[in-house]
Each structure stands twice: as C-alpha cells, then as structure tokens.
Specification:
Helix 5 crosses helix 6, helix 5 packs across helix 10 and helix 6 crosses helix 7. This protein is α+β, with helices and mostly antiparallel strands. It is built from 15 helices and ten strands. The strands form three sheets. The protein has a four-stranded antiparallel beta sheet, sandwiched between helices. It is globular. The protein is 41% helix and 11% strand.
Length: 345
C-alpha cells in the first residue's frame, strides 16, 4: 500500500485498484488471499497487471491503491519509504517454491554440469550462512537490493530458508502453480507436477558435497541463530521475541533476546551518537521476521513489548492484555534524525 494509505487489512481493498504481476506466484497468492477474505477479485476490486518496477512507481505516484508481489519487493518498497505492508504470503498457507529450471535434454547429456551448478549453490548457501552481513553487502552491490533487506531474508531466522530439497510441500507448491496458471487460462496443455520434478541431480550434488539429502528432507528449520544477548551476555534460547539491531558503521548485527532488551541498547546507542541501519523483530502471531520500523507494537501493562505485522492483530492483542498499540518510533524512542527507517513511518 502507499505509505500514507489508511488501509490496514485486505478487507479495505474493496472497490480499490490493485496491481500484481499476472501469472506469478504473487498473483496466485493474492487470488487465494482475497477469496479467503470473501472478496471476489472480478467484482469487488480492479486487478491490473504490473511488473515490480511499474508497481513500485505506481505506488509512489498513488496511481494504484495496492500492489502484490514476490520477494524481495514486499519488504524493499516499505524499506525505501514509499509503501507499507499489510499482508504476508505466509498467511495464505500456500507454500511457494523458487528454484532453477534446466532443460531435460541438456541435463541428460551433461549431468556433470547440472550437478556442479547445484553444488555451487549449496556452497554459496554455506558461505552466506557463515557471514550473512558480509554477503548481504555483496548482494547489494551486485543487485541494487539494500543490504538491510538482504539480511532480512538471508540472515539468521530469516524469511528465506534456501532449501534445495524437494519436500512434499514444494511438490504441492508446483501443483498449485499449475492450477493457478490453468485458472488464469495461461496454460493450454495438461502438466503434472511429477513430470517437472527430477531430484536425482540435487541428490547427487548433496552426496558429492558430503551432505545428507534424506536428512534435509526432514529439516524445516530456519537459518539458526547461535548468539548471546549483546546487552546481558546471556545465551538466547527463545527465538520468539528476538530483536536484532544493525548500527551504522558496525559490520555485525547485534542480537537481543527481546524488544525490551534492544530498547536499552538503542537508547544507549543514541547517547553515543550511533545511527541505526535496521532493526529486526519477530511477529508475535506468525513467527515471521520483520523489519522493525514496519511493525506494530503492543506495549503490555507488565512492560513486555510484542511485535505484529498487522495492525488488526495488534489491536486484538492489546484489547486482550490491556496494553496499547504503538509505533516503532514510540516504542524505541529513536530520534528521527538518527534513523532512515524512522523517517519512513
């Protein structure tokens, strides 16, 4: 949504104009999300097809009321200060899968090349996991996507798992994608998800890399966070309220066990003239990692602070606990001049 829009949920899109890249995973997600909310995309709103670049421009110029897209744009646009996020695809409970396609004839003729490529991706994953800040910066130089957004996806507890194994859910995701294309009349031949999946090459890549493919098939964990609270020195074992702070001029992201702990660090940083690059929090409801300045917060009577992606969820939680809903600026009391993120609110 445009940053100054008063719409805070999908229900507010009725009668509005929303763009999405037609035929994409984002398109399928949006249709399912609207249906779940009882909104008929053909009658209750106007859907137009726009690429991420056009969609972003349209949001800035207020030519549309909303835009749905795939990663990283749902985080990138808000981070750059001209949009806000009101819905995450994970709420649709419909998994998606992003991978690399290879021509079947080529793969059969040059299996060693396919396996070598897949091994390279596994090694790249290992490197990113070993130093996510460093590689987030490198990706930013290469792609133009801000390092702070890259870290959100690729860092510990990040949004992207970078899973290379063909889990049952991913097979279902391909099936769902085919169904979506058929629904949109963009698929004129019958395709089975089984004929699109051939995991012998990735299995061989795992084997040659000294990794267990079977073990990975049962691994659903996010990139792990092995850290201590930067303020207290205590090990972080509960990741449901982890808060991370990336200060300007510091190569590493600081980790805290809770928003309250991070609050003290941010205020101390202010006193010492430090500026914030990014704050990361965890959505109390879904466990999704969020850019802190884009979240809503519930300040409870007992002093606990919880983060939420959706304002409606924060309102419900505040009512139950007797707390109050506040913004990032109010929560962390960060001077506006010290944070580009705060300026985006």
């Amino acid at each position: 949504m445009p940053i100054d829009s008063n719409i805070t949920s999908l229900g507010g899109l009725k009668g509005k104009t929303v763009s999405v890249p037609f035929g994409s995973t984002a398109h399928g997600m949006l249709l399912r999300a609207l249906k779940k909310q009882g909104i008929d995309p053909e009658k209750d709103l106007t859907l137009v097809s726009q690429s991420p670049e056009i969609g972003g421009s349209s949001l800035q110029s207020h030519k549309i009321d909303g835009h749905a897209d795939f990663v990283p744009f749902a985080e990138l646009f808000p981070y750059r200060g001209f949009a806000k996020k009101i819905y995450d695809g994970s709420d649709a409970n419909t998994p998606t899968f992003h991978g690399t396609l290879v021509n079947a004839d080529f793969a059969k003729k040059y299996p060693e090349i396919v396996v070598a490529f897949l091994r390279a991706t596994l090694e790249a994953d290992r490197l990113v996991a070993s130093d996510p800040e460093k590689y987030s910066e490198l990706i930013a130089k290469t792609t133009g996507i801000d390092a702070e957004v890259n870290y959100l996806f690729l860092g510990p507890l990040g949004v992207q798992t970078r899973d290379s194994s063909f889990k049952p859910e991913y097979r279902q995701a391909i099936k769902t994608a085919i169904e979506t294309l058929t629904l949109l009349k963009r698929n004129d031949v019958e395709i089975s998800s089984d004929e699109l999946v051939d995991d012998r090459y990735i299995r061989e890549a795992y084997k040659k890399s000294g990794l267990s493919y079977e073990k990975q098939l049962t691994n659903y964990a996010k990139q792990p966070l092995n850290a201590k609270d930067d303020r207290t020195g205590e090990s972080i074992n509960d990741f449901s309220r982890v808060t991370q702070v990336w200060f300007v001029g510091e190569p590493k992201v600081r980790n805290y066990s809770s928003p309250e702990s991070a609050l003290f660090a941010i205020r101390d940083g202010e006193k010492n003239g430090k500026k914030i690059r990014a704050v990361y929090v965890v959505d109390k409801q879904s466990g999704l990692k969020l850019l802190g300045n884009l979240a809503w917060y519930v300040r409870n009577p007992n002093g606990q602070i919880d983060a939420y992606l959706q304002k409606d969820s924060a309102d419900i939680a505040a009512k139950k606990t007797g707390g109050s809903v506040v913004t990032f600026t109010t929560t962390f009391s960060v001077a506006e001049k010290n944070s580009t993120q705060v300026k985006q609110l």
